[in-house]
Write a structure and sequence with these properties.
Blueprint: H1 5-8, E1 17-20, E2 23-27, E3 62-67, E4 70-73, E5 87-89, E6 98-100, H2 101-114, H3 127-134, E7 139-143, E8 161-164, E9 169-179, E10 184-190, E11 199-205, E12 208-209, E13 224-230, E14 234-237, E15 245-251, E16 257-263, E17 266-272, E18 278-286, E19 288-294, E20 300-307, E21 312-319, E22 325-331, E23 338-345, E24 351-357, E25 362-368, E26 375-381, E27 390-397, E28 400-407, E29 415-422, E30 427-435, E31 437-444, E32 450-456, E33 461-467, E34 473-479
Antiparallel strand pairs: 1-2, 2-14, 3-4, 5-6, 7-13, 8-9, 8-13, 9-10, 10-11, 11-12, 15-16, 16-17, 17-18, 19-20, 20-21, 21-22, 23-24, 24-25, 25-26, 27-28, 28-29, 29-30, 31-32, 32-33, 33-34
């Protein structure tokens, strides 16, 4: 299988941040994600002969599927009479050996997801052992046969890598849990040299992965020996007397994280390595930090606000890679009181922020120059007497900006709100949803649709909304923990 660099970067899951009063606790995400540059040994995303030895046709055949829109390449059963094993040469000092195609795919994925250099002399059945021992601070090995005997059961998760006793390896791309109590699920795998389609499914039964590459539905076979998963960590920062909080945690391009919070009511930013250890930490102005991103230049942008005693002042702070202030802007001339809740980077390289103008009770979205923080354009919406409108999350897209929040344009109280600003800063569309609801964040899914999450006060639970690029709602779901 040969898949593009951009495609493999898309296999990721959300970060998890847990905040406790009086101390800060970080829990490692279930799957690390980083935006690494393509390694020197990366080459090609087409079905060609660059790294493949063909048997019959002179080129690498396309399999019967695409993954995230990219054609899956390589050999599978029924494509050649003898289904030969195909050697793939991975150039470079760190990976200059011939590998099975399935192992090449896994090595590229592990580099792009976690920044770990490909290991030479490692075939499919050795991937879990070699990577868990070489990168012991990042990965751990889960023995498949231990699952049914353990009192502390472990679910496989998206991004975990399997090793088989018959020299195969694969990546888990989806986990569909069917029985939480007894440990049953269906796993979807992305792989090579095992199926004509480039994907297959296997069953997780009684906390063990069943089936093999020749018969994935065989509930008695145990050819999966182990799987590779990320290590979790729990870290605390601050003391019981300083009232420390974390408001945002994002992955960084070096495999670590950037944390945004407050200590003693001051903005606090900490750079963490892959093990959760502090590389640097700094404090800044007093106030309420709300959002942080790593920018495409490897630096950071922080958004939030502070209170003067009479009004709120919105602020943006640009930091370099070491946490030093590059520029600091306060936006005290746009309203007598303003807040920033979310920041993002647009395709132009400039920055977009979203928040609220409290006096006019409007949602506020604006774009600033990346080198100075000066406003390029701004847009306000939702002026309704009696209830405030606020923008809580901003997401730049190819033809504009998606924003989620709440609007009070309803006599019965706040309502979840989604709107899109087009490329000329006009209102493309808006959707006003349930009474008594708020939408806090939004993300784009594979395929172009979007998902937003928030709170439904009618059920006192979480709320998920899926919608397309025109704002049409395809599904909604309330979630609660009892």
């Amino acid at each position: 299988m040969q898949i593009s660099y951009e495609t493999l970067k898309k296999l990721y899951t959300s970060l998890l941040t847990i905040v406790f009063v009086s101390s800060i606790v970080l829990i490692r995400p279930v799957l690390s994600y980083a935006d690494f540059a393509a390694p020197s040994w990366w080459s090609g995303d087409q079905c060609d002969t660059t790294h493949y030895t063909s048997v019959n046709t002179g080129d690498t055949p396309a399999l019967l599927t695409t993954w995230s829109g990219v054609q899956v390449c390589g050999y599978g059963p029924n494509q050649t009479p003898s289904w030969p094993d195909v050697a793939v040469t991975m150039p470079g000092a760190s990976a200059a050996d011939n590998e099975w195609e399935c192992t090449e795919l896994v090595k590229r994925f592990l580099y792009l997801a976690y920044g770990v250099v490909a290991l030479s002399n490692t075939n499919g059945d050795q991937v879990v052992d070699h990577f868990s021992s070489t990168y012991s601070t990042t990965f751990k090995k889960i023995n498949n046969q231990d699952g049914s005997n353990s009192t502390n059961h472990v679910w496989p998760k998206v991004g975990d890598v399997l090793s088989y006793s018959d020299v195969h390896t694969a990546i888990i791309s989806n986990v569909n849990i069917t029985d939480v109590t007894n440990g049953n699920a269906t796993l979807t795998l992305v792989e090579q040299n095992a199926s004509q389609s480039g994907t297959t499914t296997q069953q997780f039964v009684g906390w063990k992965i069943k089936g093999d590459i020749d018969d994935p539905t065989d509930a008695h076979s145990d050819t999966v020996t182990a799987w590779l998963t990320t290590k979790n960590f729990v870290k605390t920062f601050g003391t019981s007397s300083t009232n420390d909080y974390i408001y945002s945690l994002k992955k960084t391009s070096d495999g670590g994280s950037i944390a945004l919070g407050s200590t003693n009511s001051n903005y606090w930013v900490a750079k963490l390595d892959a093990g959760g250890n502090v590389s640097w930490q700094k404090t800044y102005i007093a106030g309420t930090p709300e959002s942080i991103i790593q920018t495409s230049d490897g630096n950071y942008l922080v958004g939030g606000y502070y209170y003067t005693g009479t009004r709120y002042i919105a602020v943006l702070i640009k930091l370099d890679s070491s946490g030093n202030v590059t520029w600091y802007n306060k936006y005290d001339n746009v309203s007598s009181s303003a807040k920033i809740h979310s920041v993002a980077e647009a395709s132009s390289g400039d920055y977009v922020a979203a928040g609220s103008l409290l006096n006019s009770q409007e949602a506020w979205v604006f774009d600033v120059d990346k080198s100075s923080g000066n406003i390029n354009w701004q847009k306000t919406l939702g002026n309704c007497s009696g209830f405030a409108a606020e923008a809580y999350s901003v997401l730049p897209v190819s033809d504009g900006t998606i924003v989620t929040g709440q609007t009070g344009c309803n006599p019965n109280g706040s309502r979840g709100w989604i709107f899109k600003i087009n490329s000329t800063q006009g209102l493309a569309w808006q959707k006003i949803l349930n009474t008594g609801s708020i939408l806090y964040s939004v993300a784009q899914l594979t395929g172009g649709s979007f998902i937003a999450n928030g709170t439904d006060f009618g059920t006192n639970g979480g709320w998920l909304v899926k919608f397309d690029g025109s704002g049409n709602i395809s599904s909604e779901r309330s979630l609660s923990i009892r």
